[in-house]
Structure formats: structure tokens, C-alpha cells
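Can't attach files on this board, so I'm pasting raw text. These are the components:
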Amino acid sequence: MEMVSRCVLLAGIAAATAAGADFSLTIASPIAASGPAPQDSKIKMKVSKGALFAIRMEECPALNKAELTGVAEGIADGAYVSVPVIISSTGTPGVYVAIQTWNPGPGMWVVGLSASCGNAKAGALVSIGPQGFQRESTKLLPRPATKADIDAELKLLQSAN
Amino acid sequence: MVAGLSDREITADIIESCRKGDREAFHALFLAYKDKVYSIALYFFHGDEAAAGDITQQVFLKLLLGIGQFRNEADFSTWLYRLVVNACMDGARRAKPQKLVSREIDIDTLPGTESLERDFARAQTARSVRAALAALPVKFRLPVLLRYFEDLSYSEMASAMKCSMGTVASRLNRAHKMLAEKLEFLR
Amino acid sequence: MNSRPPKERLELPLVKAPDSIWTSIEAALDAQIQSTAARPRQFWAWGLGAAALIVIGVFVWRAANTPKPEWNVVRVDGQPSIGSRPIGDAAKIAAGERLRTDASSRARIAVSDIGTVEVSPNTQIQMVAARPSEQRLKLISGEIAASVSAPPRLFFVDTPASTAVDLGCAYTMKADGEGNGILRVTLGWVSLEWEGRESLVPAGASCRTRKKVGPGTPFFEDASQLLKDAVAGFDFNGASDADLETVLAEARVRDTLTLWHLLSRVAPADRPRVYRRIAEIAPPPATVSRDKILQLDRAALKLWREELAWKW
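---
Top answer:
C-alpha cells for the assembled complex are below.
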């Protein structure tokens, strides 16, 4: 019996380690999080007008223990600004949308995401231009985004423009 | 639900239910007559679907509001087509300054005509007839439409158009002559 | 005199009246019932006691405060008109009424409290219904830009070739006098529907419509011109094999939106080719089998679409 328990425990650890190793984020347009409601549905599935992008946690077996935070840094009217980003859950487990908290207008922004699933960590850097979320510039990280990551990305974005 | 009746099946009961404000009965009445009313208005307004839709809506609203006024089933279609005639004439008066007319391309592409126009010659004939009809003056166009869509008698047309049977006969006769002249090349 | 005139031989086929007419009639009837309910009927009140008066008072208050089936319209430019009357700076439009703008005028409609519709120059619209469960207008010709924040399937725009069903979004809809048009979605999703044919159009994508055909296949605006032209050819010009081949060859990851719609629009013999191309770009989830997709199983198609949407 003890042997069986130990095997189960080891298997659980192995699975958690494997899951942790693959834990990552997928970033997409907000339309991925809303989806068209079926014809016979009255469920509210609208896209929030402030939604910047959708986030999905991949390979996270314990979503109830998962955490996701975001911060946006940007240059607006020549000034450097740092603001928190609201991460809003959707009706689908593990799927969230990032909500814009700054006034829309010209400027460049980078959202840094930090996620955890148990002991596993992941992150992302998402560039936001005047037209919104820039899929091609998005960078997925195997760890939480740091302030240095965000600053470097913002400088890169600034030099590219 | 009593939807799906033909206009011949509209009974005194349905009309009585409409008088009492029964929405489903009114819907049945609408379903029975809507295509004829719409078609008359559509051909009358040279294929203008929006105008035909407006006229159909107006006619049925007036019909419901005034349904207490008429007494028996036999009068019903005459009364209905009087409303259609009035609505078309009013619409034509309003439309004149805006030059809403002469959209022959719409007449040529009316929906629901494919099955009747399987061969080219027949389609050509149909197009020519519609164009000739659209070119008739209003007072000649209406009796032709009432005749073809509702098969009204002289007396029923006279009642719907508020004129004498002699006037109806003469207008229909002249309308047919004008159509014959315009369609001479088809003979 | 012969009471039944002779019937000449004429080809005048009966034309089916659009279903939207009944919707407009119902809206107008509802409006009438509401205005009757809002009118106090004094002879009732004389015979009632204080308690009954309170009940009637509450009823009248509620009737008066029930949203009327009309929308507010403001003039943005020029001189838009409702029916034959110019609207001035602001007006109300009721079910069945038409709003027109000429080449130099624009207007903005507040669609109850769920959003706005900007009416571009040279546009004609008709209000069809304004009920809690349905807000509907008809775009007769011209262009509108709608921005709606409401539960899905509450706001509808009818055109002669399709109905745009709002699924929580912002979009523009253009229709010419013949009923042909194009939908461009800027936020969220719109479903374009016509006689059982449905196109789901997300933000960044467009979809053409044609009279008697209905909605075409949606495509992303940033797709190659070759793909866009081939989609138009496939939808409205005979669905040739050459057009299908071009679409398959030109498709990027994002264009799986177009390919996913084509699965149910190509001939059954061509379906495996379309499936193969999508699967090359973005394999289906493990729970979705090839057979189910080729059989057009709704649940399987939906699961794959939801997965593909993460790449759109």
C-alpha cells in the first residue's frame, strides 16, 4: 500500500514538473476570448471595448491556483508612464482579457505579463500601437516579465518608430 | 396558430378575431394577402422594393385599425384593394417630386421569378411586359395590376378605385391597347 | 356589360413580400398599444377607490416610463430628413420611418441605450423595430457605422442581401441600390445571415454580400489581393477550381478564417483539400477528428474554429 502511494506521489510530481515545464501563455486578439455566441444562446459574450488582447494559460492543470498580473509602460506625449493593467477573467477557465486603463490616443505601450501556475512561471511582452495589439511583436517568456524587459522592449519599439 | 391560409380561406371567424384584437388572426390575414399586396405595389412602383414594403405595411396597419368598419367576408378583398389603391396613389403623389421612378434594372431582377423564366424567350417576354407596364400612366396601371393579381370584376375594381364600372372598362381597355402597342414586336 | 373583364396573357409573377414587413407592423402595433396605455382614461378613475388609483398611477407611470419604440437622431452635417421633413438639429425616428442623407449630410442615431449608428452621406435607412428584445433597422442603400454594446443577437441590420447580426461589436455596412454590399468589422464579431447561410466575421475581417446569393466568405483585410479576388470569384462567379486553388495557395495562418468557412461551401469532393490545408497551418485539437470535419459535424467545426480564432 505504501509502495502504491509512493508511486502515485512520484507520478504526481513528475506530471507537475512536466506541466510546469510546458506552462506558457498564448496571446491573441480579443476576438479569441469572446467568440460568436451560438444562435440559440442568450449568453452575453461581448468583447469589452477596452480589451487589448486575450491571454490563455497553456498546460496549467491547477487553474484555481494560477495567477496572472500585468503592467503597462508607455510613452505618451513625450512622458514615460507606468500603469497597472486589469486582467479580467472570461467565462472560459484559463482565458483572460487585458483591459486598457489609459486613455486611448497616440503613443507606444508595452504590457508585461507575469503568470504562475503552482511553481511554474511564464510571462510575455505585448506591444500596443495606435491600432492596438501587435501580434508580430509579441514575445513569450519562460518567466515573469521584469521592468528591465519592458523598458528594453519599449526602447526597441521607440527606435523602430 | 392559423398562419398559412390562402386568401380564399379567410373566414368571417378570422376577421371577427381580428376585430377583437387577436394578433395571431391578424398575422394569418397578413400571410394570406401580403404577397399580392406587395406585388401590386412593387410593379406599381417600378420595382422599388422599399416603396413596396412601405405600402404593404401602411395597408395592413390601416386594415387593422379600420377592420371594425366592414360587415362581411364578401366585402373584404374589395375593401383591402381600396386601401391598396389609395396607398399607391398617395405614394405616387409623394414620390413625384423625388423622381423615385424608372428603375427598370430592379424590375428585371425581381426575386422569385426564376422558376417562371426558365427559358430565355420567356424571360425576355416577361421583362418586356414589366417594362411596358411600368411605363403606363398610374390610372391605367392600377386596373391592370388589380386584374392580374386579384382577378377582380369590373364592379369590384370600380369599388376599389372609387369610379364607375364604365371608367374601369375604358381604362382597362386603353391599358391593354397601350400594352399591345408597346409589345407589338413580340407578336 | 360583361362583369368580368377579359384577361390578356401577361407574365407578372407574384413576388414574395419580405418577412421584415411583419416585424415593422408589429413594432407599429406595439407602439400604438403603448401610447394607448399611457393615456389616462378618466371614466375608470371615478369609480375606483384610493387603492385602485394608486395601482393605476403605478401602471401609468410604468407605461410612461417604458422605452418608446423610437430612436433619437441628431444631425451631424447638412440636412438629413426623416420622411419628407428635415430633422433640424435633433429628431426622433419611429418604426417604419425612413432617414435619408444627401451627398452633404450625415446623422447619428442613438439605438435605444445599446449603441449608436452613424449614417454616412447618400444613405437611406428605415427603422424597423425598437423592442427590448430586438433593435432592427434596414439599410436600403449607402453606408452606416454601428457601434453596439449589448448582448448578442439584439441589434440587426437588414439589407436586401443579408442580415447583419450583432454579437457585441463595431462595424461598417455598405449596400448599393441593388442590395450588394460589404461588411467591415472593427471590433468583436458580426454574423451575416441569409436564408440559412451564415458567415462569422471577426474584427479586422470583411465579408461581401450579393443579392440572391447572401453573404460571401469572410476574409481578413490584410490578406493578399490575390486571395481576396479569388474569394470573390469563388463566392459570386461560379466557384471555380482555379479560384479555390488560389485561396488555398495564398492562405496564411490568419486566413484559416476564410478556409474554415470554405469547408462547408466547397463541393464534398474538394473538402479534403481544404481540410488538409488548414491542418498544415494549424492542426485541429486532439478532440476533433478529420472524419467529423469532413462530415461537417457542427460541434467539431465549432471546436476547431474556437482554436483557430487564437491565430486570427
